[in-house]
Amino acid sequence: MTSESESKPGTDATAAEATPEPPRQQHEFDERPFLDATSEAKSRYGRFNLAVIGGSGVGKSSLVNAVFGRDWAKVGKGLPVTRGVQYYNDDSLGIWDVEGFEIGSPVAPREQLRANLKVIAEHPADRQIAVVWYCVKSNDDRLTPADIEMMRELDAEGLPVILVLTKVDAAKNVIIPGKRSIPKGVQEFVDWLENPVDENNESIDIPYKRVILTAARDKHGKASGYGLGELVTETLALSPEDEKDAFRIAQRLNLPWKRELARPVIAGAASAAAAAAAVPVPIADAAILAPIQLGMMGRIATIYDLEIKTMLSAGALAQLGVQLAGKALASSAIKVIPGVGSVVNAGVAAALTAATGEGWMRLCEQVHTGKLDLAKVNDSLGDYVPGFLDVFRKMAEQKIAKS
Ligand SMILES: Nc1nc2c(ncn2[C@@H]2O[C@H](COP(=O)(O)OP(=O)(O)O)[C@@H](O)[C@H]2O)c(=O)[nH]1
Ligand SMILES: [Mg+2]
User: Does ligand 1 have an atom closer than 6 angstroms to the CB of 56?
Assistant: First the structure.
């Protein structure tokens, strides 16, 4: 991932490294299990690459921002790959931003796109296109011959194409609550797509897999999610199997998909904790659970696409471990065995780990959706995971103070 940091738009890749490491505490646990789990999860889930093709101004960047929550278009340029093609990426997402056919170009549309796809194909495996959003303004009458030629080229290359009609001015339907009605012109475009014909009224075949009507903004310029749920559902459906998880992680609209990924991680950590405490361990040795829990937390942070590493100051995660294994453990239902003292047995270890995982998952969700204002976390949020939340808040404050 560092090899590509030069193409990372808008992020300061060196900020984390630049922070001097505080002297390492002589403690049994540190943040490494968290960081190791994060990078392991990142490489396991990989990156989802989407090609977004369409004329300038059709709303490609707005769609990407709405679905993936990356404000790349505003932040700056991607990696200019070839004329009309830019590549933006971070760990979980790559976007091939491809300008539509240039009118007046001496090269035919299909040839132009073929040349661009060839350049893309020369890039490494972790940049190869999984799905294409072919974007057209919904108030156009029909597809142009250039659009059709380009979609045929994509299909010939085996790329699944979603035809995305953008900027649909979907009005609230006054008769059916919750329903939206689309302008007459858009409906005519959709009708034409169902039975497309050329200029001579001959039936033609256009090889797209789905048509989806979308809007990133309403007519007042406010954010609109029209059609975006369907867009992510169909994008997932058309993704190659081994890139589905990367897409679930990269997108920001569907939270249940992230929970589906996080739950098995929690279950796995709970069993590992139970195994580690198969022979009940004295409280003082409960630190053996910290790496398991921190590893679980690192994986979950990856699923929510949170750069906790850059959110949290160095050493803070180690403190988190202390909190987890100490305060949280101490406040849980720990067995007292006469003659032995307080011990953590398998059941307690598993339950505690599962509770920590659920709490951390919900916390990540809140941060991910922007609902949790880290600067204003109040005590009611102690419900998540008592104990480490204070640490988390402190770390967030440090991060805010630094930036
Ligand atoms: N009304 C309306 N405007 C939109 C919508 N999506 C994008 N825009 C506006 O259209 C312009 C071009 O959008 P942009 O995403 O930059 O297009 P791109 O050149 O294809 O990347 C911007 O001013 C957007 O605010 C939409 O769904 N509805
Ligand atoms: Mg753009």
Answer: yes
